[in-house]
Amino acid sequence: MATWQIKYQPHGLMVTCQRPIVLETEVLTGSVAHFRCTLYIKDLVTELFVDTGTQLNAYNNYDPSGSLTYGFNVAEYCRHFFTEEGGFYDGSGGYCSNFKAMASREFKVRIYPVEYDSNGNLSPQPSDYKQSNPFIVIPTNTEARESTSSIEDNIRLDKFVLNGSNDSSAPMLGSSYNRLLTNMPSRNVVNIDSGYSYYNILFRRVPGRLAKVNLWNASGVSYSLTADLQTGYITLPVDPILWDFMLSLDAGSQVYAFTDAAGNLSSNYMMIHLTFVDASTGAFIRSSPGARYTLKEGFDCNKEDTFVFRNMRGGFDFFTATGTKKRSVELSGTEFDRHTDFNRASADFDLLRGQHNNTNLWGSRKENYSIFSQPLTKEYAIWLEELIMSPQAWIVKDIKDFQNSNYSKKGLVAINILKGSYNTYSTEKNVHFVEFKYTLSENTITQKM
């Protein structure tokens, strides 16, 4: 039997499936043809690792040093296991449910050698297995012109991991280098009537530390809450009503940080910032980047569209378009000509007056919308390219006869953005306008006959 080891584990606790996730084994003695690898995923309910049924082989690499190494890349396999979570669509703005599995899943790999026997035949050795370290996969895109670790590569996700180390073998970055899972510009407008507004982060839990959520309103008054955050992808709501509710629960009395006693908006500004402190002494250890938002209410969802979309970092962003909106409808279908009944022997010829001679076999109705944005900065215009290219985008709409009253009877409607319709316009004063078109992902289809 061969002796072997896992030479290279996944390159961090949190890794992206948009870049290679390469593991490597090394044979120390014996004759190995290849390694058989099985991908395991952490079950969302039992939190136990279960077999995904995905297997791959690792074959011998060419190594100038003469070492017998076998490498394999699991990135392409991991990206298929993100799930659609009901909590994201349940009408509560996504605030009261966990939809972490839409943006992160935890895996490990079980590996065993397939050796040659004395006759040169392949001999699998499933009992001689080893398991990789667990790793959390996020669909984060990194750019060629950015650095994501202290070693200046763009493969690791170190700069996005808050509080603790990413176990990537690179020296840990200081707090000032940390980044959120978004490229959203500062002071983005939050439509507080719609919900679905998020502060996206990656978090590493560290024993002996507490996470503090710090909030500021337009008057400069700050508030703080202790948050029990778990390692992985985290979303915090950008919602004044919900934060007032949480602050009131924590204080044991009513707190009006962002709204008044009637529930109306009293602050047009919110800042969210995390600090990580020693659990015993309260001493400051690290912090997160702060995010500033402009709060507004009273939008008409028939005139303005609030878009929710998966951003390039793998999280979920939001944008409310308040410019010009146009709607058009395309109707199409297939018709069939047929003869009506006719009987010469009948006094009335069996005539069914009003019977269809031309029949619609099927018909379809497709709604198209054109958006011409409000004036934007260059930073906004570049960020909105992520909306255009997003694989998942929605608009927030009033839902007819909606039984869930958690969030003003609003819900997500899936849309497809027409990539070729995107245009940007710039003025001499460096003001930008964005134009694009979208259609509903599910259009109304008339009954087929």
Please provide the count of β strands.
Answer: 26
Q: What is the H/E string?
A: EEEEEEHHEEEEEEEEEEHEEEEEEEHEEE
Q: Tell me what portion of residues adopts beta-strand conformation.
A: 35-45%
- How many structural domains can be distinguished in the coordinates? 3
Largest sheet properties: 10 strands, mixed
Q: Specify Rg, calculated over alpha carbons.
A: 28 Å
Compute the average pLDDT. 91
* Category from helices, strands and their pairing: mainly beta
Helix percentage: under 10%
Uncertain residue ranges: none
Task: Using the coordinates above, name the CATH class of the largest domain.
Answer: Mainly Beta
Individual helix count: 4
Terminus-to-terminus distance: 67 Å
Q: Please name the CATH topology of the largest domain.
A: Pnp Oxidase, Chain A
Q: What does the overall shape look like?
A: globular
Label the CATH architecture of the largest domain. Answer: Roll
Describe the structure.
By secondary structure, this protein is mostly beta strands. It folds into 3 domains: 3-139, Sandwich (Immunoglobulin-like); 175-296, Immunoglobulin-like (Sandwich), CATH 2.60.40; 299-449, Pnp Oxidase, Chain A (Roll), CATH 2.30.110. Helix content is 7%, strand content 43%. The protein is built from 4 helices and 26 strands. It has helices spanning 75-78, 86-89, 240-251, 378-389; strands at residues 3-8, 14-16, 22-29, 32-42, 49-60, 68-73, 105-116, 122-124, 130-131, 135-138, 161-162, 188-191, 198-203, 209-216, 222-227, 232-237, 269-278, 284-287, 291-296, 305-310, 316-321, 324-337, 358-372, 393-398, 410-426, 432-440. Strands 1, 2, 3, 4, 5, 6, 7, 8, 9 and 10 form a 10-stranded mixed β-sheet that branches. Strands 21-20-24-25-26-23-22 form a 7-stranded antiparallel β-sheet. The protein starts with a strand and ends in a 9-residue tail after the last strand. The mean pLDDT is 91.
